[in-house]
Amino acid sequence: MVRAAVLPAVGAPLEITEIDLPDPGPGRVRIRLAAAGVCHSDLSLSDGTMRVPVPAVLGHEGAGTVVAVGEGVTHVSPGSTVVLNWAPSCGSCHACTLGEVWLCANALNGAADVYAHRASDGSDLHPGLNVAAFAEETVVPAACVLPAPEGVPLTDAALLGCAVLTGYGAVHHSARVRAGETVAVFGVGGVGLATLQAARIAGAERIVAVDVSPAKEELARAAGATDYVVASENTAREIRALTGKQGVDVAVECAGRAVTIRTAWESTRRGGRTTVVGIGGKDQLITFNALELFHWGRTLSGCVYGNADPAKDLPVLADHVRAGRLDLGALVTERIGLDGIPDAFANMVAGKGGRALVVF
């Protein structure tokens, strides 16, 4: 038996309880978690913004050590250190054949599986976004396991599984930021901090961080922001003032709110690019008129998992970490145990801090 944070129903409080994990069957791997990041997507699953079969063990950003492997698993073995990939590509759907593995139609099929049971009553449990990282140990499909990069502390490597891949990919794959361009990042949470670092690595000349909290300015500047704007109804105007009244070349929205997406779009120059990383609810509606779309010539695009291929991007990120260009520890504002996850959710709702990291 292992301890885990179970979501009993949508909208219900998490329950820290013991669960029974099976031995890994064919094509599956059992992992002892070293750390798991608390992502806003986990909050979105718990409150019903995103759908998930329940009861479920949430947590999708993690790293750990292989305990056992099932028949047919050859790329890792007991003792291997690994990073979890919550959205493994199938390789055969239409998106995968186009090379767009981040849009794989089958990536989340495993979330509907029964992967474990409550120790108290034997009831079925689902693995959240495939990997159920809010637990001392988990059992996942082999496709959800990637070798952890050498030279990166395993607890920090957990952040590579979502926040850093998403932020880095938003800058380098989706927005394709070029050296010398100007960038605005809306939302200074874990993904926002990773995005700021990625913009700095890309060589952005001016990087404007935007958040509702004045307390996050120090975090933002440490990650690479050259300017900090406290969000208000004048945000777009302030950003244009910082950029010769033109607006930034690129805006990356990490909050998933209609008003923020609209403001990010308005903050870009004529012909600018806005990439939306944040996950909003169906009630978050954004309107544009036909004339402004024509006149401004701006691009607005969604970004799923940083438009990344984890198998290819993980080694690139590791090189940045080892070279000192990417500071994973700077994303983390608190290290907690499983019992601290509800408070971490509350902090996200209140707009406090960066990434909370569950350390086992």
Question: TL;DR?
Answer:
This protein is of the alpha/beta class.
Number of strands: 18
How would a crystallographer describe the biggest sheet? 7 strands, mixed
* Structural class by sheet pairing and helices: alpha/beta
Q: Over all CA atoms, what is the radius of gyration?
A: 20 Å
Mean pLDDT: 96
- Tally of helical runs: 11
> Overall 3D geometry?
globular
Indicate the proportion of strand residues. Answer: 25-35%
The end-to-end distance, rounded to whole angstroms, is 15 Å
Uncertain parts: none
Can you walk through the features of this model?
The protein is of the alpha/beta class. 26% of the residues lie in helices and 26% in strands. It contains 11 helices and 18 strands. It has helices at residues 40-47, 94-97, 154-157, 163-174, 190-202, 217-223, 235-242, 258-266, 290-296, 310-322, 341-349; strands at 2-7, 15-20, 28-38, 56-57, 61-69, 81-84, 116-118, 124-125, 137-141, 145-147, 182-186, 206-211, 227-230, 248-253, 268-276, 299-302, 332-336, 355-359. The strands form 3 sheets. Strands 3, 5, 6, 9, 10, 17 and 18 form a 7-stranded mixed sheet that branches. Helix 6 (217-223) links the parallel strand 12 and strand 13 (227-230). Helix 4 (163-174) packs across helix 5 (190-202) and helix 4 packs across helix 10 (310-322). The protein is globular, with a radius of gyration of 20 Å. The model has no long low-confidence stretch (mean pLDDT 96).
